[in-house]
Amino acid sequence: MAQDISTYSGHHYSWVEGARIGHDFGRNPWSPGGQGTEGFVSPGGRAVLRQALAQAVEAGEERLSFDFGFDFRSIVQRGEDGTLVLDPFVMPSLEIFLAELDSSHAQAQARGRSLGADVVLTDFRIADRQPADPDHPEVGGDTPAFILDPEARRDLVAALAPALARLGQHPRITLNLMNEPEFLAFPVAKALASLRQGQWPAASYVERRAGKVVVASGAAVVPLLEALGPEGHVRVQRDQHTGAAKLSSTPARVADVDQFLIALREGIALAAPQAQVTVGWADDRSAIENTLRLEKRVGHPLTEVVSFHVYDVAINPWHPLKTTRADFAKAGLGDRQLRITEWGLGSPQGQQALQEAMIAVFSKVQQAGFEGVLFWWDADHLFDYRAYRQAIAPFALPTAVALDQASTPVQTALGPAYPNPFNAGTHLPYQLATPGPVRLQVYNLAGQLVDELVDQWQTAGAHDITWSGDRASGIYLYELRTSTLTLRRRMVLIK
């Protein structure tokens, strides 16, 4: 571009290489040169947006990414009654943004393509290099209050509700809760491991003590991090070009960031239940944790809907995306700790621990009824495994019916296997409303018959069959077939 558009945004990124797009959904008084803008409402801002979208169409790109609230002080303000509200420029800017996106999508369709947008609601660099604002302590400073204060968090989500509703209702918009949240609060133990493994060859540490600034680099960083203690956390700023890591202490914890993401996700669910939601974790090859992702097909692209990290420390590993923590709890995934300790990594024991964790999670996700592709990526490269992919294609199961010992049950039902997961046999209970021919079979996920447990006429009532599980570890389906219906459930065998 010939025009210098830095006055419209200093923080936006795009999937079109070399393009820089204004993120100004509201006013931006912090633009370089002190030239405040009125976002996309201004003629210049709209022209920059239109030019960037045109570039995307010309390049054949299908998605662009926009920062909505990199610095919330350009998005929200205090109303006359003291409540936090949207800046008056936000909704008009948002409408212009959607209109230009729709127009560009129509142009892309004429070329046999489509065009959508990811709108990043928050970023782990929140308020970087910005001093705390006395007028906006909830959205300013190194650690904005909405990360730590539940009341400030509620106020912010409530203020954003009109914008969340409008964006979430758009069919080609995906809302990104936060870009790379793991860098906002990073456990000290993980930071030390990254340093010792050479993942951060050039690292520095900055800390403010009693009005003084302490700066260290290289080997001097390690003792300062160790002094923070095992429960300490740091913020991580990575230089995309050099890979250098700038660390600083933070009062925020992983759980605090989780709670903010949960609150924001719940706010979106209220404002726009049909919204597509994701979280922008760091690039897989630079990710810091071993990560499981469930991706759901929406047309041709894959949309990330479930993502979490497996930690070896006692912290909650779940990060909310398309499904919330409450959804996971219903599926039995709630506050469960999935731990793979650091002993024996790469050894048969470590491989077994990894496999068991994968099988357990695959089973839970299937039982929850999610559909898509579940990925395991070994981000740390500490295991012998590189990547796993498991297709998730849930069967339409009937509503669960409580099994009882009544001689004449009112409905034929197939009960859950118990125990499940198991390693030395499991019970498969079922009940029949009427007598008749019955077949109970076990299949693997490829649809191949593994065992036939029952193939005979049976009386009405409760039945219980034991399967020895003399097979390889994995997820299996057991199927009850009568003359009138077929029921299926899943079970997990761990050797």
Radius of gyration: 26 Å
Any guess at the CATH architecture of the largest domain? Alpha-Beta Barrel
Per CATH, what is the topology of the largest domain?
Answer: TIM Barrel
Q: What is the beta-strand fraction?
A: 25-35%
Main-sheet strand order equals: 6-9-10-7-8
Number of helical regions: 9
The CATH class name of the largest domain reads Alpha Beta
Percent helix: 10-25%
Mean model confidence by pLDDT: 67
Structural class: alpha+beta
Low-confidence stretches: 1-23, 29-36, 282-351, 370-409
- Strands, total number: 23
The CATH superfamily of the largest domain turns out to be: Glycosidases
The end-to-end distance, rounded to whole angstroms, is: 60 Å
| Main pleated sheet | 5 strands, mixed
* Tally of individual domains: 4
Shape: extended
Account of the 3D structure:
This protein has 495 residues and is α+β, with helices and mostly antiparallel strands. The chain has four domains: 32-184 and 253-280, TIM Barrel; 186-249, no CATH class; 284-392, no CATH class; 413-493, Immunoglobulin-like (Sandwich). It is built from nine helices and 23 strands. It has helices spanning 43-59, 90-110, 145-148, 150-168, 188-196, 221-227, 254-271, 325-330, 348-367; strands at residues 63-67, 76-78, 84-86, 116-120, 173-179, 186-187, 203-209, 212-217, 233-238, 245-249, 276-280, 290-297, 302-310, 318-319, 372-377, 387-392, 413-414, 426-432, 436-444, 449-458, 461-467, 474-481, 486-493. A five-stranded mixed β-sheet has the order 6-9-10-7-8. The protein has a five-stranded antiparallel β-sheet with strand order 14-13-12-15-16. A four-stranded parallel β-sheet has the order 1-4-5-11. β2 and β3 (84-86) form a beta hairpin. α1 (43-59) packs parallel to α2, α2 packs parallel to α4 and α4 packs across α7. The radius of gyration is 26 Å and the shape is extended. Residues 1-23, 29-36, 282-351 and 370-409 have low confidence and may be disordered.
